[in-house]
Amino acid sequence: MSIVTQCPSCATTFRVTPPQLQAQHGMVRCGRCAQVFDGFKTLATLPEAPPEAAPPPTTAPETSAPEPVAATEVVMEAPPHEVPAPAVDEATFTLSPVAVEPPPDERPAFDPAPSRRRNVGWGIGVALMLCGLAAQAAYFYRSDIAASLPEARPQLNRMCELLHCTVALPQRPRQISIEASDMQAPDPNNPGLVALTATLRSHATTALGYPALDVVLTNTKEHTVARRIFMPAEYLVAGKDPRAGIAPNAEVTIRLDLDTGDLGAAGFRLDLIAAPAR
Question: Which of 149, 178, 189, 196 is deepest in the core (most CB within 10 A)?
Fold first, then answer.
């Protein structure tokens, strides 16, 4: 390979050697137009010319080393008697800042397989992640799914058999209203025994699970004297399955028999809250 540099003024190309450029820090003078320039900035390499038949022996004229110009320059002259080799046209050769590429036979073959493998790997990973999210959603919202899609209940039941859970009806206390409520002492001789009754009505279009009852007992001054939360199994009449729930737009009457002792309960407050899953 040959190292060449080009005059930025007249575009003449010269063969140079690293020692020539390093001697004066790259500063050279063009032997054609006398322009002083930095030879490092236009360095390039050229392939060697193909071998040719040896010319008849001639006496080569003596050449001298480039004449130093001041203390920081090197003169690069193109000998007038030298004819450029056919592979290097120094009068028209133009350097350009393009990337050097290997010859076609040395270029690596394009292999799209790694890219396809990465794409397949990403696709499998995304699919597994989506399946995991769908499974989590089915587990946490199994009650709502069963209420909205009754045909999915068998599959949800099989899932819960493996995960040791239950597919209960959804808890939506805000869709259930208290139509009427009352507290009475059925035995005048024992005022501490009271019966609390209430009528609940569902306004949902699907079956809902029975809510829990938040009962607060108050005295004559409406101060709280006792509070307790009752689960459906505690306030439903005997023989009624708590898992059956309240049918859409249906009413249900509940009754609680309470022993208030000497608390002096004179009133109550009743609220509906979501019953915890069991």
Answer: 196
Q: Please write the tens of the pLDDT for every residue from 150-184.
A: 788 788 888 888 887 878 788 999 999 999 999 99
Tell me, yes or no, whether 129 lies in a domain. yes
The answer to whether the CB of 31 falls within 8 A of the CB of 5 is no
CB 238 within 8 A of CB 146: no
pLDDT tens-digit series, residues 230-274: 999 899 888 888 888 899 999 999 999 999 988 889 999 999 999
Q: Does residue 72 sit in the same domain as residue 149?
A: no
Q: How far apart, in whole angstroms, are the C-alpha atoms of residue 73 and residue 37?
A: 9
Specify whether the CB–CB gap between 209 and 245 falls below 8 A: yes
Q: What residues make up the domain containing 195?
A: 173-273
Whole-angstrom Cα distance, residue 177 to residue 182? 15
Question: For the whole model, what pTM was predicted?
Answer: 0.46
**Residues of the chain by 3-state class (helix, strand, coil), percent to 5:** 25, 25, 45
Number of domains in the chain: 3
CB 235 within 8 A of CB 256: yes
Are 156 and 120 in a shared domain? yes
Cβ-based neighbours of 168, under 8 Å, separated by 6 or more:
143, 209, 243, 277, 278
Q: For residue 55, is it within any domain?
A: no
Whether 140 and 231 map to the same domain: the answer is no
In a domain, 54, yes or no: no
Q: 156's torsion region: left (phi>0), alpha (psi -120 to 50) or beta?
A: alpha
- In 119-259 the beta strands, taken as DSSP E runs, fall at 176-184, 193-202, 212-218, 224-230, 251-259
Same domain for 220 and 190, yes or no, is yes
